[in-house]
Amino acid sequence: MRLVYATRKSALALAQCRAVVAQLKAIHPNVDFVEEQVVTSGDKIQDRPLSEIGGKGLFVKEIEERLLDERADFAVHSIKDVPGIVPPGLALVCVPRREDPRDVLVAPRHGGLEALPSGARVGTSSLRRMVALKAARPDLNVVPLRGNVDTRLRKVDAGEVDAIVLARAGLVRLGLEARATEVLEPDVSIPAVGQGALGLESREEDEATRAYLAPLHDAETGICVAVERGVMIAVEGDCRTPIAAYAVRTESGRLHVRAFIARPDGSSCRKTERTLQWPTSEADAATLGQDIGHHLLAQIS
Ligand SMILES: NCc1[nH]cc(CCC(=O)O)c1CC(=O)O
Hints:
By secondary structure, this protein is α/β, with parallel strands linked by helices. Helix content is about 35%, strand content about 25%. The protein has ten helices and 13 strands. The chain has a five-stranded mixed beta sheet, with helices on both faces. A five-stranded mixed beta sheet has the order 7-6-8-5-9, sandwiched between helices. Helix 9 runs parallel beside helix 10. The protein starts with a strand and ends with a helix. The model has no long low-confidence stretch (mean pLDDT about 95).
């Protein structure tokens, strides 16, 4: 048996898919896993914010084309990069256990958010992170900064900016978690939808591939991600809307959700925090998320 997986070429994408494939190999020693590297439109355009160039779908489009025309059998994505609606014929068939979902600050010369001097330049092109930074420290100067994790680290090291905000999960997967100078708790920066989670995508009808991937699925992460993606689907169609949603299972087995959306210019911002009954299926989880998203949308418009 031979399974081809398509991946982006960035260090993070390669680290992620190879870690997943190593786990799959341990379970299926007789399967031959073949890597196919793909350059996506999102990788080619590095100088403008994603919200301007058409959104995160740009990182998955070319990979999904390969799945659809059967040049590849599965892909490993950061769920954060996967749009709410997956193209017909494809499905997110497996969501492994989530890594740390939180954002971190990397400020080599300063340390934490409170230690940054007034007017310090913080580089991020994420509207969500911009809103969180401005709420915590209105005196900071948030400047656009894109690029792979390594590019952004180089820019803060070179002094182009005083600090950057990254996902802790990405640093952990690259073995660079020591670069974080402060972890931003969800009360300061609500994580992005799906942050820290991976999604394995394959053709919906390809039962054989789905069966090979299934052992890596984590039901609890799957439910949390379905809630968060539900919030996103409710407001989708506009990638300029800053949005965050973070769901966890509490110690008492309930569902705890934090979410916010804002107007694209950050002017009007609504946050919500709810504790609900744990959903019994991903479909129910998605519906709960959509209810939260619609409720927030009604409040800012
Ligand atoms: N394209 C950006 C992206 N997509 C996924 C991650 C981090 C890993 C994750 O959230 O699972 C990152 C980098 C970042 O935000 O710092």
